[in-house]
Specification:
Layout lengths: L6 E8 L5 E8 L5 E6 L10 H8 L3 E7 L16 H18 L3 E7 L1 H11 L8 E4 L11 H13 L4 E3 L11 H9 L6 E3 H17 L7 E6 L7 H10 L6 E5 L12 H12 L2
Parallel strand pairs: 3-4, 3-5, 5-6, 6-9, 9-10
Antiparallel strand pairs: 1-2, 2-4, 7-8
Helix pairs in contact: 2-3, 3-6, 4-6
Length: about 280
């Protein structure tokens, strides 16, 4: 797909509580369907350009949101007062994409974005024909220090916007050194997570686990088998409990947390395009 035939645009929507939320898109000529991407925590939609380029070759458009507190969108970095605010951001974004797209819109959530999409589905806030989750952030690998968990719970009630460093090791996002270097150098990437965001995220994950049998919409779940950030086993648990027809799970042996940005991403892109029927 040449640069001349791939249209790139950016814009804004207004959230339910009045925040300006940034989005961008990569649209090939006459796309057959459109992906609506919800990114992971600490990053932004611009990091999905490689995915968009690969999908464009299959006639698929890609839109990507910067949800509140991330990228070019408004809000304190890494903060959300409620999980429902994040779901509302995703719902508003999908509505915007549906207004512009000529065909089917498929929500795609990566990492924390995957948790947001799953929450929106189990709560009935998103009702797509199908959806995709990549390395959904359902259970963190490694033990979070007890003092940090305790502080987070207290601060969530008394000072919800107070943020701590997630201490994410960028070496664990991808096996590609160039991807890791770009992540570290990206001024729109951050490692802040507010106390309220953390407690809301954990509560949402518990709800997803409990309500997984209510997931009746076909979906594709992918995860890197070598992910050192988020536990692939948690993705398998939700997948196995979901009652959706046409569901599919792919675990990529050795791949790190971001399969779309990892060595061998061509395989991941091909599997996604095949599942989408492109």
């Amino acid at each position: 797909m040449s640069a001349e035939t791939l249209q790139e645009r950016e814009g804004q929507i207004t959230s339910a509580d009045g925040k300006r939320l940034h989005w961008r898109c990569w649209v090939p000529a006459a796309p057959g369907l459109t992906l609506a991407v919800i990114h992971g925590h600490g990053e932004h939609g611009g990091r999905y350009a490689s995915l968009a380029g690969a999908m464009a070759g299959h006639g698929i458009a890609t839109y990507a949101l910067d949800y509140r507190g991330h990228g070019s969108s408004e809000g304190p970095r890494g903060h959300a007062l409620s999980w429902d605010d994040l779901i509302a951001d995703a719902v508003a974004f999908n509505a915007k994409v549906a207004q512009e797209a000529s065909g089917e819109v498929v929500p795609l959530g990566h990492s924390v974005g995957g948790s947001i999409v799953l929450s929106a589905v189990v709560r009935g806030r998103l009702r797509p024909r199908r959806f995709v989750v990549s390395s959904p952030a359902l259970r963190v690998l490694g033990k979070v220090p007890a003092w940090k968990v305790g502080l987070g719970r207290v601060a969530s009630k008394l000072a919800p916007s107070i943020a701590l460093d997630t201490e994410l090791n960028a070496d664990h996002i991808s096996r590609d050194p160039a991807v890791v270097a770009a992540y570290r150098a990206d001024p729109q990437v951050h490692s802040r997570m507010s106390a309220r965001f953390y407690t809301e995220w954990q509560a949402a994950n518990a709800e997803i686990q409990a309500r997984a049998p209510e997931i009746r919409i076909p979906f594709l779940a992918t995860h890197g088998g070598g992910d050192q950030i988020i536990d692939p086993a948690a993705t398998e648990v939700v997948y196995n409990r979901a009652t959706a027809p046409g569901k599919k799970l792919i675990i990529y042996p050795g791949y790190f947390h971001e399969p779309y940005n990892d060595t061998g991403s061509e395989r991941v892109f091909a599997d996604l395009a095949e599942w989408l029927g492109a």
